[in-house]
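Lay summary

Proteins are chains of building blocks that fold into shapes. Our project writes down both the chain and a compact code for its shape. Here are two examples, one after the other.
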Amino acid sequence: MIDNHIIIDGSKGEGGGQILRSSLSLSMITGRPFTLKNIRAGREKPGLMRQHLTCVKAAAEVCDAEISDVTIGSEELSFMPGKIKAGDYHFAIGTAGSTTLVAQTLIPALMFLGEPSSLKLEGGTHNMKSPPYDFIEQSFLPLLNRMGANISCGLQSYGFSPAGGGQISIDIKPSTMLKPIELTDRGKQVSFSAEAIVSKIPISIAERELKKVQAKLGWSVDMLKARTTDNSIGPGNILLLKLVHDHVTEVYAGFGVVGTSAESIAKKVCKSANRYLNSEAAVGPYLADQLLLPMAVGGVVCIQPCDQAFTQRPTSR
């Protein structure tokens, strides 16, 4: 056994997939091998799902890692990283598993190399219990770039659950290191907006969501937008609330689910947004969660999280 080999219990905390993804990212960056046991023990279906297996295989390819024999359902993983390589990578999940969470795993390892890299990721782009593409583009990456990264992204097609089939691209240019930032307040309000998107289902669903947003938040009609996209292989619906302030942009999302009314979806998203807006926090719980790893890599980042919103910790697959 290598002296610096780390043993991690995946049942701790929420017992979900974030322990796996963070372990992979930090192992690639530090060069320290690890064994993760009890993978996703806190979930109804423990072990690796296809999205998690894609994260493992993608991380192994990026850094020439040696890994144990794992497959869907595996509850233990050994990962011995090699040297991180810049390159143009293409990974397909094969389901509606989250492309944004795969990106979250790989970005920290690739952004400090002396050469540019690109990621083309296929799967889900807008699915429950994962940050939607819009959150990565408008909320997370702008702050990461403020810290010194140089990363851009693009949405080629939507991937709703259960069909998947979406595609995103990530372009990563060389950076030296992340610098600490101070984010203790969100600043003045710049703009608020709501967008409801539907694919292969009636536009009336999006319109009903926005009507409920207007009733709950008191927003004017010019702040609301309903639209249809044909750029998806399957049906789907997402409601996005975009809260732009001087120092930070927050994106709150609700996802259409069979058997759940448009009004219920909108009501839940509005409740989350109001919890943030009625606090004095700079960032909400999801963005704070995403910033933890860059904070660890780049040094102390002073942020004021939304304490009221932390009454229930964000969950991920």
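And here is the second example, written the same way.
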Amino acid sequence: MPCLNQMNKKENINWGIIGVGNVTEVKSGPAFYKVKHSNLVAVMRRNAEKAKDYAKRHKVPKWYSNASDLINDDEIDAVYIATPPNLHASYAIEAMKAGKPVYVEKPMAKNYAECKEMLKVSKETGMPLWVAYYRRTLPAFLKAKELVESGTIGKPLMVNIKLYKQAQERNQTKQEMHWHVFPEISGAGHFFDLASHQFDFLDFVFGKVTEAKGMAENLAGLYPAEDTVSGTWKHESGVIGNGSWCFVVDENSVEDYIQIIGEKGEICLPCFSHGKLKLKISSGIKEMKFENPQHISQNLVQQVVDELRGVGNCVSTGESAARTNWVLYEMVKGYYKK
């Protein structure tokens, strides 16, 4: 079994990816062979032809159709798990027990109980566990955090979130729909996939959520998961929040923003159309634009590699990500307990 201290002394970290689907094509996969001191040496997908094709297109030396074969490849130092959430826990636990640090896609797992088991195994094995909440490293979000911490908007008081999206599923059969709307795979619906980014960012800025309450319903009847959620919460810092999410609205009702209100002003930024921020204070309104890396998770992947090499720390941990899973479930649990 590899020793983490030995890995700290390595010049380069060799990665294997389990689950090379769409998210790994541009957003994440290339980061593992483009950031400093990182190599992508193997990929896995259950469909062997698709695994082989991905490896060929991205110039990856090895491919597998079995996850255990990749995990037990002695050349691989660490594993990135990019499968749907229902497989995160099992693959992460297997990898950590094999002595491989793990970087897993968000949300961390299908439910909070699985997150706790992953953290338990991480502690028992000594293998680090990180989660792909890359907004913690993007310039607009870092600027928002800086503005809060510098006192630019005074004492922060509350947060408002709105995320309203159209339903692609209106013109799809159940067979055509994405796994995001099937709770047995994703844990819930689009809310788990998208609101997880929002709550993780707020955890980053204001600390963990200590209270959370929500209501969730399926109002359009297009798929099994909830499609509309409303909730309130409180951070350990005292900041309170409220939010609403709906994934079946008309195109004229589409919304996407996080609003942070302080005693002396406010910050407003979208969560999913990256790179913009609006600051409102007594001296006026200032709009800012920021450039993101070509591969959106690149900055976070670099932090993971640096920590593995013993020269830095990653800001998105299993502990912080598990807290987000807890908040998400508190918001929708009434719908799933019916």
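What can we say about the second shape? The first helix runs from residue 4 to 8.
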